[in-house]
Structures are given as structure tokens and as C-alpha cells.
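PROTEIN FOLDING TASK:
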Amino acid sequence: MIIQSIKMAMEAISSNKIRSFLTMLGIIIGVIALIVLVSLVGSASDSITDQVNSLGSNLLYVSITDDKGIPMKLDEIEKIALDKEFSAMAPMGQLTAIAQNGHADEVATVYGTTPSYSDIRGLDVDYGRFLRTTDVENSSYVAVLSQDAATELFGKTNIVGERVSLDGRSFLVVGVLAEDTSFMSMMSNRIAAYIPYTVATRMSDSLSGVSTIYASSSNPNSMDGAEEVLNSIMMKRLKGDEDAFSIINQSTIMDAMGSITDILSLLLGGIAAISLLVGGIGIMNIMLVSVTERTKEIGIRKAIGADRSSIMMQFLIEALVISLMGCAIGIVLSWFIIQLATMAADGVVTFTISGGVVGVAVAFSVAIGVVFGIYPAYKAAKKHPIEALRYEG
């Protein structure tokens, strides 16, 4: 009986192709909205999470906003780094400079730091090397450039041994970093140079004291010990003023990001679900019209022995088929849209459709077909055969 009902549903749909398509349109749009929106958010959040993870889940970031008139010096950072709770620690000073090479010049972000920074942030060097301890101790005018800086200033990437000017000071290029195509790099200046912290302090009076510190915990599975030690040291150093500094734990950021993206996915999914509900109302309206148009057909079927359950099953399956066909078209179109979005992202983010989202879309479409098909099916099933046969439309 079910197979026969499906055949009859397909015949009814094919006999009114335009009307059936317009009926499906609400479901198609709802499924596309659900799959595409949730997939975009999910893929983008996964990409960002992976990139944040690549920085190290054991990362601690300290920002000093009030040094109490006694600037923190580099040797203090080196002493703190000796604590067993830390595997590495590096100061960070940031300034903006005009980078020049011949007639080419660019606005560059210059980072003053120490060799440990490379390990803490997971920087990869394509050519040459990163900063060394001797560079910091001797205040050597050496620089490691980002690959974008090398390309823009020199027109090539292997520029080890060349010289670059930063605010009029000549630096020997000792290394070039690997290309950074991450989403996070898009939010900052990609023309960057890394120089010894001791040299950066000469270039800017604002770097007379260390105000930013990066540290990695010796135990990646537990950041609490390292954070407690760092907090204790900062409290003692800054005279017990907890407002004079802040410590950001990378694992805390990861947890917060996960919560935010989950909430965002639910909100977008809810918005898409409203579109599906609108599509369901469209199905119910058309099915009610279909029941009215086929009143005489219902009367004939009842007259030759069809019971109420078979009539109800016929129209319920028809509503379900319309909903599932709309869902199938929506899934296919969603796949094409996701592929276009991936192409537009140009390798920064790869968008994918998860099976879970597709499963939710199918389940929701089935529910829409059943819920909004019940009333028209019930209305068709309760028609009296004699009155149905007399119906002239």
C-alpha cells in the first residue's frame, strides 16, 4: 500500500509541476539556510580553533598596564622563565615603522622579542634562522621578515644577507618566515619584522619597560600551576595591584570560543528552522487545495472499498514526498553554495558540510511533511463517499 501511495503521490506531483515546485520552494530555502549557515559557522570556527591551537594550548599572555613607575626589565623576564612551571618565556614590544629597500617602502609592524618567542608562537622559518640569544645580548641590528614583507620589499623570498631599513636604521636580514595563510593573519598587518628586544627599545621610548609577556607552560595538560606562579610574581612585582596587569590563559579562550560558536550555530539553526516552518505551511495550504480538487477521486476510491486509513496514508505520503524532494534539492544546492564559498575563501578556510547537519535537515523535513500533512490527510479521509461523488467543484 505504501509503494502504491508513493506512486500516486509522484503522479500527483508531476501532473502539477509548477505548483509542486513552488510548494517545495519553502522547504528548499529552509534546508539551504539551515545547512549553509550552520556549515559556514562550524567550518570557520573549526578553522579558527585549529589556528589558535597551533599557537599552543599551553600559552599564557601577560599585559602590564601600570608598572608603578618601575619598568620591568628584560633580565627580570629571564629570571622568571627559570621557574619549573614554564618551558619558555619571551617579552614582546610592538611598534610601527617604515620598511624600505631601495625605492620600495611599506608600513611594517615591528616586533621586538627574544629567541623563545619563535617556540612559544610556533613560527616556522623558510630561509635562514630566527633570532639568537647573542643577537639580543649584543643588540645586533638583525631582522627576520615575514614572507609578505620579503615579497613586497624585495620581490623575492630568499633574501637572507640582504639589508632592510626600518625607520632609517639598517638591519641585516637573517631569516624569512614561512608564508602565513591563516585566517588570523588576515586580521593583522602581514608586513612584519622581528628584531631583538634590546634593539626595539632603542627605536621607541614606549618600550623602555616590558609591558607584554608570552609564556608557555611546561605542563600542557594543566595551565593552573603556571598561571598561579605568574599571577603571584606579578602581584608581588606590582605591589599587590591586581588591576595593574592581566593574564590571559589560552585554554580559557578556547573554551569561550567553543561556547560562542555553539550558541551562534544554534541561533542560526533556529532562524533556518523558521524558514522550514514557513515551507511547511505552504505544503499544508497546497495539500488542502489538492484535497478539494480531488474530492471526486476520494469518493470513487471510498466507493470501491478504500478505507479512511488508506486515504489518509495517500495524502500524508504525498505531503511527505513533497517535503523530502524539497529537502533533497536543498541539500544538493547547499553543496554547490559551500563549494563556491570555499573557492571565494581562497584557501583561508575550507568549508564543509557535516553529516550531522544534513541529518538534522532531513529529520526536520520529515517532521514538517508529517505535521503539516496530517490535517489535509485527515480532512480527505473523513469525507463521506456519497457527498464526495456528488461534488462538482
